[in-house]
UniProtKB/TrEMBL annotation, chain A:
Name recorded for this polypeptide: ABC transporter ATP-binding protein
Gene3D superfamilies membership: P-loop containing nucleotide triphosphate hydrolases
InterPro entries: AAA+_ATPase, ABC_carbohydrate_import_ATPase, ABC_transporter-like_ATP-bd, ABC_transporter-like_CS, P-loop_NTPase
One Pfam family cited in the UniProt record for this chain: ABC_tran
SUPFAM superfamilies attached to this UniProt entry: P-loop containing nucleoside triphosphate hydrolases (SSF52540)
Molecular function in Gene Ontology: ATP binding; ATP hydrolysis activity
PROSITE patterns listed in its UniProt record: ABC_TRANSPORTER_1, ABC_TRANSPORTER_2
Domain ABC transporter: 12-246, 264-509
Organism: Sphaerochaeta halotolerans
Record flagged with keyword Calcium: no
Keywords, ordered alphabetically: ATP-binding, Nucleotide-binding
Lineage: Bacteria, Pseudomonadati, Spirochaetota, Spirochaetia, Spirochaetales
Automatic annotation (TrEMBL), chain B:
Subcellular location field: Cell membrane
Keyword Protein biosynthesis: no
Keywords: Cell membrane, Membrane, Transmembrane, Transmembrane helix
Superkingdom of this protein's organism: Bacteria
Name the record gives this protein: ABC transporter permease
Molecular-function GO terms, alphabetical: transmembrane transporter activity
GO cellular component terms, A-Z: plasma membrane
Membrane-crossing segments per the record: 63-81, 117-138, 150-166, 190-213, 242-264, 276-300, 320-340
Membrane association type: Multi-pass membrane protein
Lineage of the species this protein comes from: Bacteria, Pseudomonadati, Spirochaetota, Spirochaetia, Spirochaetales
Record InterPro entries: ABC_transp_permease
Organism whose genome encodes this protein: Sphaerochaeta halotolerans
Length: 513, 355, 323
């Protein structure tokens, strides 16, 4: 990192920022200072208030109290347009791009000083020039939905540069990138700093903080707990402790690896997109034994979710076979798959895992309502459901006022526990978990991981899809890496190396490593 | 000063009751404005409507008779709405029912007369179910937009019914309408004009409530309506249930037609497309898809219709006033629903905090 | 009557019928493109027809009549916008409510706003003048295509409006915003665009065009007022939006085809075909054809995987605080 001089007026100063959401104090008297040419890492767990703080800086939310100074002047930021006028731009975790519009259209979208008929030729030229200058290769007339995730991120960066932003906020920019792409991003950022731009980047990954930033600021439960130069940090563990407020559990309780019979066997699985094109799943083969956790690593969007949907019967396959608990379950209905003993913790909690407008009790019984345990002759026994739900709420320590509360009023962690409780309770030997700890705080994450391991120790075959290598190395027995619908390789978790997995995730063939 | 909506911690039951009642009141106030604009005294008009709907035994009977098909159409629509399947073709399914029973009554002369009514009812219900099932299949199999298909099918079957009563099935005498059903096959009356159909409707309310709230199928419909994708993940078949629900929805709308034909009109004739499908939508929405509450709402809707007929006779005001009020009810209801899950915050100017 | 004559007449009738549909469809295309589904078209068009007719009847001023129709249409769609955008109501029942209220109110007022001599009824009344066809010399004499140059001012205006609507949608910065709001409101908001404001504006514009479309019926096509005179055209409009694949330029094709079928049906009835096919069958044939076309198009679209996809955010409400 280049040396930083901090004698000038800071480009951004946020003073005593407080923001409430219903039932949550998202930011509590937070101060933040950013200097010219500085990269500030904003570190914190999920839900610590990092994104909220930044969304206020770009005008998507308004603070309840507190002040923001930009380049020395008090700023009133009520909309993203205001922040853009001050040279502040943000790249959100979920890209803000219109899929069916061109790169150029996305870049100039919503610009106030655009003429009635935007001169597209000129705009293309300017984009090309900018992309050359920063080494961000994109074609202005391409349609966004045809671009890769990495390319889309480049468009996001260009969007800010085009508008003359000199303060960039990046929300978990590397979450969707392979380690290699992340290094490219680092290069681009460095180049921008030499031109006097500054950046804040939000992350919860300690190694990125050490590698990218000048200064690190740690948020915990809405409060700023520490600001210090990155160089002064001696041990990563110290950062972690600051972030969590206690020691992270780096190892979970687990029994010895003792694999049993094969419970999941997938052979030559092929899924083609509707309307033709490159296969979504290309000749996937693997097997999972009882008492074994197979982790699926890969950057999101490389076919992991489709793989789990194919196994659970939600997606029809064009070729290959799926054997579950010894039975051929290829292209069977989701109900048949459930009856074969498969439980599924889906990728998207809110839209696939629970019915938000139904009660916790109803959500807990959504798998077993059709069994003799909860109903007879097609009539649901309400008394049994109540007892069943109360039992699970206690067993999995789900925090809810009572079982009649609609699930959507619960916190993310408790919604996930509700799903976990239902799926684990009904599990018949095979458990499929897709991004089960995504967006959860440390406590809930631990509970999820420990539960998965418990199932493994009980003899279940577990398929765990995760985007965090750290999680896979901690939980899985074997790790399969997916890239563009293929399995690049399957390795033993205990002798896997992060670097090697990263190369595979980026699509580098085994023989080339 | 600014207004902002804030999500509540849980659903407000108080609001869930208050909003529909308030909507009814608001629609009457807005209706009064319409009356004022068109030079009529709203108090007199409303008094005339209430008198016209409940003023005497006969009038009450008329209102009740009217509420029977409305209740059934409300139930029919409600089942589809549970799945967020927007069946706005209950009217066509109703007409299907009338065509079905008329066919049996007029042409199945080989049947003993005691069997005419039950068989006619079954065939009518079947016709309704088929007419509801087609959009169901189109939606389930190919996701063809159901608002349009159900509505287009209204126009088709209403045109077809016209052809039948003007032409193909026309009674030899007169210029329209089919042959009257044999007297012994009429659905008997039980109190003045009120006929046995009221029992069928009330029993159906009980059965539907049980099915929707107590059975596995009802649970599945609830899941699909509130989150289709999650229901699918839990092994519930969306396609099968959309088709089943639409068959049932169409069957109940068909039953409404069958009962009205067997007990009131005794033939297929002009006026068979009385707009029950749309009124059914209001009933379903206002009752929050609850069959028991539908009973009260359908009586209110029927009273608006009989009341506005009286309005035309006593005050020479167009009977479309009933439709105006019915249409007006939904607007405050839809606007107010948000307060069940959100509360309104009034924010004074932002507090100034010094650095 | 020779064939050429028949076709020319049919095209003329098609243009007259299609004009009303084209205005309303253009309006609904813009509304839906911002993500708002307005199923209230039937009620709005009927109110537009009534407002236009009463104004023309009372003032004799056709342009004032058009303005009133647009104002009323705009007001009704404003109610829809308020329900769907501010109160975040489900857009389907909200649209149905507008249709029910609009048709009810139009039919009610149609029996109240007429002269006392006619029992306050507007039905059966005539307006002093109407939008009649204006023939362009020479051009209107061309066989068949001449029909294009012997139409009312309302139709001529469309010749300019449709290309402009296409240009506005795909070539201007405002069109870009419209498309972005309907496709990805979150992104639009992050670029400083007020999603609510854009949705309000184009829902109201859509309603104004629908009101205008309704007035085309009562001031030009069949210059009169009749209860329920739109007869389901508001619903056909919703189908035509799908057929046009949300592209203003393609509105032409849908309206011409549907207008053509309806006109053909009338001329066939007039030509005595009802001896062979019952007139009622011809009467519902446009709806049957719409149904079949809708199903076919949806199925083809599925096979081709969304090449005619609707705006992604169509029918969903949006609030920045929703996570």
């Amino acid at each position: 990192m280049s040396e930083l001089t901090t004698d000038e007026t800071p480009v951004v100063r946020m003073v005593n920022i407080t923001k409430h959401f219903p039932g949550v104090l998202a930011n509590d008297q937070v101060n933040l200072t950013l200097h010219r040419g500085e990269i500030l890492a904003l570190l914190g767990e999920n839900g610590a208030g990092k994104s909220t703080l930044m969304n206020m800086l770009v005008g998507l939310y308004q603070a309840d109290s507190g002040e923001i100074y930009v380049k020395g002047k008090l700023a009133e930021i009520n909309s993203p347009q205001d922040s853009m006028a001050l040279g502040i731009g943000m790249i959100h975790q979920e890209f803000m791009l219109v899929g069916n519009m061109s790169v150029a259209e996305n870049i100039v979208l919503g610009m106030k000083d655009l003429p009635f008929v935007p001169p597209m030729a000129e705009i293309h030229e300017k984009i090309t020039e900018l992309s050359k200058r920063y080494g961000l290769q994109v074609y202005p007339d391409k349609i966004i939905q045809d671009l890769s995730v990495g390319e889309q991120q480049r468009v996001e960066i260009l969007k800010l540069l085009y508008r003359g932003a000199d303060i960039l906020i990046l929300d978990e920019p590397t979450a969707v990138l392979t380690p290699g792409e992340a290094r490219d991003l680092n290069e681009i950022l460095k180049k921008m700093l030499t031109e006097g731009k500054s950046a804040i980047f939000i992350t919860h990954k300690m190694d990125e903080v050490m590698e990218f930033s000048h200064t690190v600021q740690v948020l915990r439960r809405g409060k700023s707990v520490s600001v210090c130069p990155t160089k002064s940090i001696k041990r990563v563990q110290d950062l972690a402790n600051m972030m969590v407020g206690r020691d992270i559990l780096f190892s979970l309780e687990r029994g010895p690896y003792n694999p049993g019979d094969i419970k999941v066997e997938v052979k030559d699985l092929l899924v083609l997109p509707v309307g033709g094109g490159k296969p979504i799943l290309d000749n996937i083969s693997f097997s999972i034994r009882g008492g074994e956790i197979l982790g699926i690593a890969g950057v999101a969007g490389n076919g992991q979710q489709q793989l789990t949907e194919a196994i659970t019967g939600l997606l029809k396959v064009n070729g290959g076979t799926i054997f579950l608990n010894g039975k051929d379950m290829t292209n069977k209905t989701p109900l048949q798959v459930i009856k074969a003993g498969v439980s599924h913790i889906p990728a998207d909690r809110g839209s696939m895992g629970v019915v938000g407008d139904m009660s916790v009790g109803d959500n807990l019984s959504m798998k077993k309502y059709r069994t003799a345990e909860l109903s007879s002759h097609n009539i649901i026994k309400r008394g049994l459901v109540r007892k069943f739900a109360d039992h699970l709420i206690e067993l999995f320590t789900i925090k809810t006022p009572n079982q009649d509360t609609s699930v959507k009023f619960l916190s993310g962690g408790n919604i996930q526990k509700t799903i976990l409780a239902r799926e684990i309770d009904a599990c018949g030997g095979i458990l499929i978990a897709v991004y089960p700890s995504r967006g959860l705080d440390v406590g809930a994450t631990e509970a999820v991981r420990q539960n998965l391991i418990k199932q493994r120790d009980k003899g279940c075959a577990v398929l765990l899809v995760s985007e965090e290598l750290e999680e896979l190395l901690m939980v899985a027995d074997k790790i399969a890496v997916m890239f563009e619908g293929r399995i690049m390789d399957i390795v033993d978790a205990k002798d896997a190396k992060t670097e090697e997995l990263g190369m595979l995730m980026a699509g580098v063939e085994r023989r080339d490593i | 000063m600014k207004f902002r909506l804030e999500k509540r911690d849980s659903r407000s039951t108080r609001m869930a009751v208050l909003v529909p009642v308030a909507s009814l009141l608001v629609s009457f106030i807005l209706g009064a404005i319409v009356l004022l604009i068109s030079d009529a005294n709203p108090f007199q008009a409303y008094a005339a409507m209430i008198k016209g709907a409940f003023g005497s035994q006969t009038k009450l009977q008329y209102t009740l008779v009217k509420s029977i098909p409305l209740l059934l159409c409300g139930l029919a629509v409600g089942i589809a709405f549970r799945l967020k399947f927007w069946n706005i073709g209950a009217e066509g399914q109703y007409v299907g029912g009338v065509i079905g029973i008329t066919w049996v009554m007029q042409f199945w002369t080989f049947l003993p007369s005691a069997l005419l009514l039950p068989v006619g009812m079954l065939v009518g219900i079947l016709f309704g179910a088929i007419w509801g099932g087609i959009p169901g299949v189109l939606k389930a199999q190919w996701s063809v937009d159901e608002t349009l298909t159900t509505l287009m099918m209204n126009y088709i079957i209403i045109g077809f019914a016209e052809y039948l009563y003007f032409d193909a099935w026309k009674a030899p005498r007169g210029n329209m309408g089919t042959v009257l059903y044999p007297k012994e096959a009429w659905l008997p009356r039980i109190w003045g004009r009120v006929h046995g159909g009221i029992f069928i409707a009330l029993i159906l309310v009980g059965i539907l409530w049980f099915v929707l709230y107590k059975t596995r199928w009802g649970f599945e419909l609830n899941m699909i309506g509130k989150n289709k994708r999650a229901a699918e993940c839990q092994g519930v078949s969306i396609k099968k249930n959309i088709i089943l629900a639409m068959l049932l929805s169409g069957a109940i709308a068909g039953l409404a037609g069958v009962i009205d034909a067997a007990a009131v009109t005794h033939q297929l004739t002009k006026g068979v497309d009385a707009g029950y499908g749309f009124t059914g939508i209001i009933i379903a929405w206002m009752s929050g898809l609850n069959p028991f509450i539908s009973i009260i709402v359908s009586v209110i809707m029927a009273a608006l219709e009989t009341g506005s007929d009286a309005l035309q006779m006593t005050m020479k005001l167009p009977n479309a006033m009933g439709a105006v009020l019915q249409g007006l009810i939904l607007i405050p209801l839809l606007a107010g629903n948000i307060f069940i899950e959100y509360r309104l915050l009034v924010i004074k100017n932002r507090k100034e905090v010094t650095a | 009557m020779n064939m050429l004559d028949f076709i020319t007449k049919l095209l003329a009738a098609t243009l007259a019928m299609g004009t009303s549909l084209a205005y309303a469809t253009l309006g609904e295309v813009y509304t839906q493109k911002t993500g708002i589904l307005n199923l209230g078209m039937e009620g709005i068009m009927l109110m537009g027809a009534l407002a236009g007719f009463t104004t023309a009847f009372n003032t004799g001023n056709l342009y004032l009549a058009l303005m009133m129709a647009m104002l009323v249409g705009g007001f009704f769609s404003l109610i829809h916008a308020f329900l769907c955008i501010t109160m975040r109501a489900n857009q389907v029942p909200a649209g149905l409510a507008i249709t029910m209220f609009g048709t009810g109110l139009a039919n009610f007022l149609g029996e109240r706003l007429g002269p006392a001599s006619n029992g306050y009824n507007l039905t059966g009344m005539n307006i002093p003048s109407k939008f009649s066809n204006i023939a362009i010399p020479f051009l209107s004499d061309i066989p068949i295509l001449g029909a294009l140059f012997d139409v009312s001012l309302l139709t001529y205006a469309l010749y300019l409006l449709i290309p402009f609507a296409w240009f506005f949608m795909y070539k201007t910065k405002h069109g870009m915003v419209v498309r972005a709001v309907g496709e990805n409101p979150r992104t639009a908001a992050s670029m400083g665009i007020s999603v609510s404001k854009i949705r309000y504006i184009y829902t109201v514009i859509g309603g104004m065009l629908a009101g205008l479309g309704g007035a085309c019926l009562s001031l030009s096509f069949t210059p009169s007022w009749n209860e329920g005179m739109t007869g389901g055209k508001g619903w056909i409009v919703i189908a035509l939006v799908i057929f046009s694949t949300w592209n203003p330029a393609r509105v032409v094709i849908g309206t011409l085809v549907f207008g053509g079928i309806t006109s053909l049906q009338f001329s066939l009835q007039a030509a005595g075909l009802k001896m062979v096919i019952p007139s009622q069958f011809l009467g519902f044939s446009p709806y049957l054809i719409t149904l079949v076309a809708l199903a076919t198009m949806t199925i083809i679209n599925q096979k081709k995987k969304g090449s005619f996809a609707s705006p992604s955010a169509l029918g969903t409400s949006f609030a920045i605080d929703d996570k």
